[in-house]
What we know:
Helix content: over 70%
Strand content: under 5%
Order of helices and strands: HHHHH
Amino acid sequence: MIHRYLIGDNDCKPNAIAFTAAIKAHSSSINATISTHASASGDDCDFESNDISSNNCKKQIELSAKRCEELLQQLCLLYQTCSHDRTLKPTAVTFDLVTRACTQARNVEGVWRVKELRSVVMNEDAVK
Length: 128
C-alpha cells in the first residue's frame, strides 16, 4: 500500500491513525500473550526460564515489539520524506505504545531508539 502511494496513487495514502491502529493491535497482542501465559502458568512470562511455554511467550512478545518499532520507523520516515505532512506525524500515543511494547519485551535498545526518534520528530517541528 505504501509503495502504491509513493508511486503516485493518492487513494492509498497512509496516515498516522492507520499506523497507530496497527501498532495498537501488536501491543494488544503482547498484553494478551502475557495475560494468557500468566493465567496458564500462574506467573508472567519468565524471560530467564528455559521452558518451552516461556520461550514461546518471550518470542511472541519480542516479535510483536519489533513489529511495533518497525511500523513507527516507517511512519516517521514517511513523515520526514513527505514534506512533514501532518496526517503522517506520529502522536504521543504512538510513541508511548511502542515504548511500552519494547519495555515489555525487555528491549532496552528499542526503548532508546524510540526515545531518539521521538526527539528527532518533535525537534524538527520546533525548528520550523
